[in-house]
Fold:
Amino acid sequence: MSDFQIKKSSIVYDAIIVGSGAGGGMAAYVLAHAGQKVLMLEAGQNFDPRIDSHQMKWPWESPRRGAGTTRPFGDFDASYGGWQLDGEPYTKKDKTEFDWFRSRMLGGRTNHWGRISLRMGPEDFKPTDGLTEDWPITYDDVKPFYDKVDRMIGIYGTVEGLKNEPDGIFMKPPKPRLNELFIKKGAEKAGVKVITGRGAVMTESIKGNNDRAPCFYCGQCGRGCKVYGDFSASSCLVMPAQTTGNLTVITDAMVREVITDKDGTAKGVSYVNRIDLQEYQVTGKLVILGASACESARILLNSKSSQHPNGLANNSGVVGKYLHDSTGAGVYGFLPQLMDRKRYNEDGLGSIHIYSPWWLDNKKLDFPRGYHIEYGGGMGMPSYGFGGGVASMNGMVPDKSGKMKEAGGYGAALKEDYRRFYGTSVGMAGRGTAIAREDNYCEIDPSVVDKFGIPVLTFHYKWAKEEILQAKHMQETFLSIMKEMDGVVTSKIHGPETNYGLEAPGKIIHEVGTIRMGDDPKKSALNKYCQAHDCKNLFVVDAGPFVQQGDKNATWTILALSMRTAEYILAEKKRQNL
Amino acid sequence: MNRRDSLKALGLTALSTTVLVGACNSDVKKETSSTVLEPQAGREKWEVERDEKLKSETFFTKHEMATITVLVDIIIPRDNVSGSATDAKVPEFIEFIVKDMPYHQTPLRGGLKWLDIQCFNQFEKPFVEASAQQQISIIDEIAYPIKAKPEMSAGVAFFNRMRDLTASGFYTTEIGVKDIGYVGNTPNQWDGVPADVLKQYGLENVKV
Structure:
């Protein structure tokens, strides 16, 4: 006899939210604070930065000294997940490339992100070059929500008055490090604007918020912050929502599909528990997906019924299409003038101190849109890989007595070289706009399931000349900045055979656009409030609804749009439309 | 939470973690390897299990470890600033890391063998039994990648890997961090580049 059964809960929640990252977390925060009874399903395990963060650990506290063997961004990174998950494959079509980073933890990828928090600008919502479709909303529609997110979560930066780089409500920014001053000087000579960074790190207290303490400058945001000084969806959204008593969180709940009624409305969600492999069904008046752009698309495409034969919210057929990640490419090297530099603590904070917003006019360029530049380097905490370049760098510049020496070596002289070169590193990376295209997509692989029996995604993604020419421009710009700051380039200089260093799609972990919003139900899955055209009690609050990403990192826009959607839900409930 | 409270919380957390790890270690020592591992904060179960498994295995032979021990101290010897690679337990680190990153195994095992053969051909002794002068004469042939003779390229590749692993293992210990002068990883108020440093580089007037 089989003991297979599906456990059905008798509670009917006001809303079921799938995913606990920026989008799911914000929706839960707003709804729970408004008295809605909310159930949140998270595919991964619990994670509280106060307890689980590896902040302030020394390299020797990791047997692999912080290397990325088991965690792609290092042993101390706040990440349960990675590019490949055991028993949860994804596939690729037509020899195209896509790398998919998935987190399986409370707070999702907000635990280890770079905290770089840029608003999309007026031209990102309504492009003037006619190349991609307009969003159904404008910057002015989103601005009040960006403002509220700024005040609620905290962001540092400086008011600059730039046209397509809108200012926020900023806390005091960190001062630049030594290498960043050299960058500023060199970049300006190369014609590249450099301004103060913008990041979701609390550099000042937030009035009335006693759960979080300001940044104490360890520079380790990626490990998670034990005093909740930076933005993670767990510490800033989900846990505060739980204290209202209105939010129930179930972890290790891997969602299979959204269940719909005979009339096509969403009535709940079925999931499998990752640990005991038992099957569950939960019921709610609303279903809100915030599982990540691709995971939410997967859930929709797997939610087939007679009412929704093409998958849920997919009468238009656009679900999974228009997938786009940011472009990315970088150059690094060292600054010989910083050899033998004075030691002091320059950890600073764990997001960017400075950056270059897009500064050029496309009329004079051979590619559309643009990119911003993030900078790094300096006297960081040693970890696995430390000193790796020294045995070639020591042949590039004169030694202390002014003589050139043979690269390589060993012994006391080499030991002296490690000291001389420490803190001279400098690097820069571009993050740019990739064009949303119908033929870059994810869809269900008809022949592959994961270990839970859930059909998996297959990806089809190709860069086109717009992205490749942009990467070429990035590399030329970076090399010219390096030259102007008298830096020595040690990274590989790429040619057309490697797309000028353009990273594979997915690698920048800004994938968006798979459940796009729009006014026309034939060409979009969601309306301008991220509500499904074909299923009025279904919403998407991750980056799936993005029509076209700017060069700005996605998180701040996810937060603003999710807040906007949650407030719309409350308003519609009041009007009894939901 | 104000700053003082938060720092106190940090201190306590650090302390309790140490106590937990200590307690966990002594359990492992007392009991057999079938002990159920205690969950660790911030680690997935499979990570803890994997680390324990790697630590229970041995890759290098005694002879290989003896050779590694000589090599790492040639690369990073004691000087007037800090101790040697073996003082910082670099050989133990290398033993762990080749199990963690198995792609190091064949190049290191093969490279050690290459070194012994090279030494035997020249001095009729394996590397560890050669005199310090003989050892250095071989190292000089493989420690300078551009200058090295083409027939020594396998040795150059081996020594490059050995040098990098030694640096990784050394500068990530207390001895190494102190030597290199990293003084962060402590709560502070970052107020920008110190005035004397700005002056040294003539950057007093550069503003972002």
The radius of gyration of chain A is 24 Å.
